[in-house]
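Key idea: predict the complex, not the pieces.
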Amino acid sequence: MKVPCGRLMKTMTGAMTTTVLILAVLLPVSVLAADDEATLYPEGRIDKQALERILPDKPPYSPYADRASPTRPLFGDTHVHTSFSLDAGAAGARLGPVEALRFAKGDEVMASSGQRVRLSRPLDFMVVADHSDGFGLFPRLFEGDRELLADPTVKEWYDLMKAGKGAEVAYAIVNAQASGTIPKVFAVEGFDSSQPGYRSAWHEVIKAAEDANEPGRFTAFIGYEWTSNSSGDGNGNNLHRNVIYRDGGDLARQVDPLTTAQPWGSPNPRDLWKWMAAYEEKTHGQVLAIAHNGNMSNGRMFPIIESFTGKKIDRAYAEARARWEPLIEVTQMKGDGETHPFLSPNDEFADYETWDKGNLDLTEAKKPAMFEFEYARSALKNGLNLEKELGVNPYKFGMIGSSDTHTSLATADEDNFFGKASISEPNATRAEHPYMENPELGLKIMGWEQTASGYAAVWATENTREAIFDAMERRETYATTGPRMIVRFFGGWEFEDEDAHTRMPARAGYTKGVPMGGDLANAPEGKTPTFLVAALKDPIGANLDRYQIVKGWLDSKGKLHETVYDVVWSGDREPGTDGKLPAVGNTVDVREATWTNTIGAPELIAVWKDPDFNPEQPAFYYGRVIEIPTPRWTAYDAKYFGLQMPPEVPMTTQERAYTSPIWYTP
Amino acid sequence: MRKPEQSLPVAIAALFALAPAGIFASDTAVGPDFAVDRDNAPVLEKNYSPFVGDDYPNRVFWGDTHLHTSYSYDAGLVGNTLGPDEAYQFAKGKQVISATGVPAKLVRPLDWLVVADHAETMGVPVLIQRSDPVLLKTEIGKTVHDLYMQGKVYEAFEYYGLKVLVEGNNPMDDPAIVRTVWEEMVGFAEEHNEPGKFTAFIGFEWSAMPAGNNLHRVVVMRDDGDKASEVLPFAAYDSDDPEDLWQWMARYEEKTGGQVLAIPHNGNLANGVMFATETLSGKRIDKDYAAARAKWEPLYEVTQMKGDGEAHPLLSPDDEFADYERWDRGNWAGEKKTPEMLPHDYARSALKIGLQLEDKLGVNPFKFGMVGATDSHTSLSTTREDNYFGKVSLMEPGKERFTGQIVPDPEGVGTATYEFETIASGLQGVWSRENTRESLWDAMNRKETYATTGSRITVRVFAGWDFDEKTVLRPDFAKVGYRSGVPMGGDLKAAPSGKSPRLMIRALRDPDAANLDRVQIIKGWLDAKGKLHERIWDVACSDGRTINERNRCDRMVGNTVDIEHATYTNDIGEPLLMAYWEDPEFDPKQRAFYYVRVLEIPTPRWTTYDAAFYGLDLPEGVPPTQQERAYTSPIWYTPSS
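Result:
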């Protein structure tokens, strides 16, 4: 038996290994000859027969024994703001981290607007991610902290707020921050995270997470949002990242969060990555960062030319980004970021909750050339090219959705949407009230454009910080725009139709392939990638329309391509001559804000083989699952408040899920 | 509560009479202490968030009320080395090594568990292994101990059976020793109970078997260890009459302020005694008996490893699915079954007899909901066909388990039942909001539970007078169901004139298992002449099948099982079935019950998995494939006097 011997040697020092070798040399020949199935090691003898008695010769009877793969997705929100965020507090949020976590666990709470609210079902995990800039300043502002009010601008904000104009204050603060005109006292207290006031607010948030964290039942991560709005070449461009800790408070408290204003912090993501590395080095803990709202970055989120230097990104950038940012938040209340109709003109589902008027504060209008560097699909494509040039793919990210709510209430359901900020909690005017506008440039985003989205689904082995974080690191995650559909996506070389018919496709998935977020490499001669896809509808939600695979690839001339394949769909629809599947239909009664599951399928499952595979060309594949049409939150509002919405307001939606990609690398 | 001196309408009328006419004109209402005008009255607004205030059950929690560990003499003395700690760990999804050395793991964790070891000499195997001095003071204890320690396990068990079971001696009649064991059992449950995550109930089995007839009851406590420790479990030595068990339960509740319920099982091995119309002491069931039974026994364990007890083909000749995993040869003493025993052995007929008794007595003693449980003696609650660890440790996976007997045939009359006839069943789904002892127990007590033969099929049924066929399609159908109807286990009364009961049903397959074949409604009723009837309606069929004039899916669903490899595919059947049904034969004057049966498509029986795994021939006498099923608790209709 060679195996135990090898294992033994590995654990030995060089000197001991020598001893073993000498021992072996000194062994009488007869011993070896007598039984060449036996091996001596320093403490005794191992023979094959004895081992065969104790080591199994076939897999265990129980098909679930030794199974370590995840069996159910956990749903959560990695991006919830509370009154500890300056802009949230100014816009009326009165609920802090403790209430946010209680709500996530399924408790009923009183929203800041005085309405009772509850989730349809508890979430499994959550990250309270308040802005590190101005952390906890709002409660101090609200209490009329003298130090803060000594500044005339702060005093003006305070008075406005007391006069019930919290919303104006909120936007004034966002604008001041974006334009770099934040009052000095705010700057020091808000950006110097080593100030005692700052630190105690941060420790309060850590404590809320520690108290709410219940391993096995509910995971409360420690986290914050690093809120960079300046891209080196301009202001108001959203480069935000949420930082999530795998660790408990004992480690997290050892390092103060990073803010974005110099000299205390930095708006450059490279400095965030340095901060993350320093944190890990000091504490031996682990953190990751999740970027969001490329659609409000005006072309700076997924750069080829780095906005801070004006130069092409280098290998160091690519390595750091790949190392620290395994995921992106692809869908949230400020629009969906999978792709844009300009980029994907042949994708009839591309124009979904599109926010493309300008940057975060609408100080600069959008230009079509920016899209390529804002949306997930094009970034994944550019990543293939960059990998070829740099040897590392900076944009090898998985997908999650989250809310980015500023109400403490992680509501992503259409029938229970509590809005982006407390001023847009349910009320009769929220749809027609502008969310953001810049009259000078003629730009305006309306309240009804807010998206009731999204959640993060994580295939973790258990509900703990460690297991969920590790699943995020390996990108075994998917985004949903709110519904809790269960989505599997496996890639491999050997999947067959039968794998889709077994009662446990995941077993075939994990043993014959890799799950979402994984890699396929070295195509076996003559083989083509096959994908095992499965989706089960949200048990209390709508049926499914179709499961699609989105493929992007780099051809031999360095050109990037994408195609969307319909893989499996409900009913007996046949694709038309244009190759497009007819629409699933629509059961929505807009007036009553209801629908029926008389169309669509509760479950979709299939094996798909890439018909256009070329083993020389790098590619990625991800799954997109689309629900049948259901009422959009605006329809629920119209029904509840008895409103007539303007004609441009969409009243139905097709919710969806996006899986993390699987990459093929030649 | 003190009765108000005058009713509210009278008071309001008085108010109005006293009010000057002008007040009405100005839209003001006067109360005793102040007036409220219409414009300033507070408006009760509907909440925007549709889930505010929801308190109806919204999840199924899966568990097993009936699991034995090494603390049961018939487990621990014959090879089961796994105690309650391992049983809980396994139920929580951890991998364990079975008593025979086989790695075992559940497909998914359970949500809750009742370790229900026999009260009779509970813990004796561990006391023997510890050479407990108090036990060794008794002759029986000493003899069994010595035999066991010499390695004569069979002799020890045989001697024990003779002295304790046959001759009725109790080697543990010292309360101190019983207390030691009981406190250990309570301690295990307390340690593993994690409210919100996993519920470990405190419980035990009262294993009465007068004349070899199985009258066993599993006793389940709602309470924590502080209350449970105030008593010692009630054993068959104390009495083998269920009425005495109920008195013990009443005393427990009185003493501790706690709550407890009992679940009988295996009427099929009770030879007409489980649902007899006479008491054990031979009197006709009277109102007091009926009331006590209805109070203490809200549930019946309708399916488990020793056979399925829903219906029998002789009793239900029109039910082509009645002959499912039938164990009907006799009782434990080798007394052969006779046809007149059957109505008192099976759940469906007992539910019918209950209507008759209620008509006579005013109380229905057999008004029970359905649960499935394992009764496994391996500490491993396994119910899947592909992961079946057997009834006892001696028949854990191995090449030999197609040969052993599990029910003896001492008289040679053909009562022998073989290990391969045991069934990989069952499970209990409990509709609740929270995973706590209190919340789950309350759901059991109100019968909002159902049985499955092992799969985790989600089933919901609501009955009411005002649903229409679109209601079941609504996204919030459960909310409507609770608001204007009753769930499984509930009661319909006072039929509105001209209306029939309407049922809404949704069934979702086990995410890890087979698609669904059909949904059926089973109705039982008592006619004006006192005669009992039953009828089955298929109400949802998979694969586009229609329902024919015999109220059945117009063809069988098919069978995809590959017997040789023990596999099947889900390309027949459907993951979700929904149905709306209105009773076409309703007579508001007749008592009735309705329950739902959901069938899966055919899948391999556990013996087929074994044959494939070990390369054996299939045993004769059991089918290679079977259709797993779920039985909901009934909804009863009772005419207003």
